[in-house]
Amino acid sequence: MTLIDAGPLVALFDPSDDAHAGCVDLLSTIHEPILTTSCVLTEVFHLLSPDSRGARALMAFVGKGGLRIRELDREDLMRAFELMVKYADAPMDLADASLVAIAEKLDLRRIFTMDRNDFSFYRIRLGHRHTEFEVLSPP
């Protein structure tokens, strides 16, 4: 499973976005389910605006099962808050923190993001180890 951040989702569903073609090409190479969090989805709909063609296309994509959505439980949310404090100098927003928290919980390492620098810096805590994300990003 591959996590997906807000930037690629906006680019995928907004053809006027400069990264649209690169994100479409990169998405075509991912042959496993893609997952995001409700926090990320909220950010995406804010950026697309709810009444746009892109927002309606994203709604249809989610409805057809093209994107899995993970809700945060209390434990996930507390971990996300902990990460936001830890990476406050970055700073890490709730959407990014939710992805790191879910990566830790589900033992996921791959993320499709436009924020290569941020997700190259963030670490996933797996037991006593901290590991890097495998960052997928369009050129």
Describe this structure in words.
A hairpin with a 2-residue loop joins strand 5 and strand 6. The protein contains 7 helices and 7 strands; from the N terminus they run E-H-H-E-H-H-E-H-H-E-H-E-E-E. The mean pLDDT is 93. With 139 residues, the protein is α/β, with parallel strands linked by helices. It is 50% helix and 17% strand. The chain has a single domain (2-136), classed as Rossmann fold. The strands form 2 sheets. It has a 5-stranded parallel β-sheet.
Which short descriptors sum up this protein?
Rossmann fold; alpha/beta; five-stranded parallel β-sheet; about 140 residues
Provide a compact summary of the structure.
With 139 residues, this protein is an alpha/beta fold. It is 50% helix and 17% strand. Strand 5 (123-126) and strand 6 form a beta hairpin.
CA-atom Rg in angstroms: 14 Å
Structural domain count: 1
Mean of residue pLDDT values = 93
Number of helices: 7
Q: Please write the string of helix (H) and strand (E) elements.
A: EHHEHHEHHEHEEE
The main sheet orders its strands as: 3-2-1-4-7
CA(first)-CA(last) distance = 22 Å
Label the overall shape: globular
Assign the structural class, choosing from mainly alpha, mainly beta, alpha/beta, alpha+beta, or little secondary structure.
alpha/beta
CATH class: Alpha Beta
- Low-pLDDT parts are none
Percent in helix: 40-55%
As for the CATH topology, it is Rossmann fold
The CATH superfamily is 5'-nuclease
Largest sheet: 5 strands, parallel
Going by CATH, the architecture would be 3-Layer(aba) Sandwich
Number of strands: 7
- Approximate strand percentage: 15-25%
